[in-house]
Every structure is written in C-alpha cells, then in structure tokens.
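// run 5 | inverse folding | seed 20
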C-alpha cells in the first residue's frame, strides 16, 4: 500500500467517524428542539390556566362581596331577633320557678304561658 492510499484510507476513516458523530449530534439537537417546543407549550398552557384561575377568583370575590351586601339586611334582622330572644331567655332564667320545688310543673307552667303568648290574635 502506498503512502497516498494510506492517507486516503485515514481520511476516509476520519470522515466516517466525523459523519457518524455529526449524525448523532444532529439527532440529539432535533430531539432537544422538539423537547423545548413541548416545554414552551406546557409553559404557555400553564400561564393561560393561571390567568383563567386568577380571573375566576376575581369573579368569585366580586360575587361574594355582592352576596354579603345583599345579606346585610337579613343579618341585621336576625341579630335584632336574636337580641329579643336572648332578652326573653334572660327574663325566664332570672324569674323564680312558678312552682317551687317541682321543676317539671314549673316547666309546664312556663310552656303554657309561652303558648298563650303565641296564640294571641
């Protein structure tokens, strides 16, 4: 084999190795680019979902504020009614038993009085 042939064979072998390395690197680069596109899509999707979630939370906050404003009169009425009931309960608890020594009879008398108050026309 002549030195020229050896050089051509060595060059051919080196080119084959470089070509093989190039093809491997090209495949890895193509895979990395595809992965990057997929990750960008996931990122964009996550941003979109986060934005929609934030908008929904804002809508829920507005709805809760609106319902709180609408319920305020009912809460005021309920508080006044509760105050009246609490005062009545305090009065009942502070008065002595109608039938001393007999809790059951005292309870019956109080229930009868309460029922009479409810039947008023």
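// decoded
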């Amino acid at each position: 084999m002549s030195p020229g042939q050896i050089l051509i064979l060595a060059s051919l072998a080196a080119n084959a190795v470089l070509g093989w390395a190039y093809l491997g690197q090209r495949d890895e680069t193509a895979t990395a680019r595809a992965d990057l596109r997929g990750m960008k899509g996931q990122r964009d999707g996550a941003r979109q979902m986060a934005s929609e979630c934030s908008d929904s939370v804002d809508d829920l906050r507005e709805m809760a504020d609106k319902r709180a404003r609408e319920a305020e009169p009912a809460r005021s009425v309920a508080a006044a009614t509760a105050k009246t009931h609490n005062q009545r309960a305090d009065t009942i608890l502070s008065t002595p038993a109608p039938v001393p020594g007999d809790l059951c009879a005292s309870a019956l008398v109080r229930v009868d009085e309460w029922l009479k108050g409810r039947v008023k026309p």
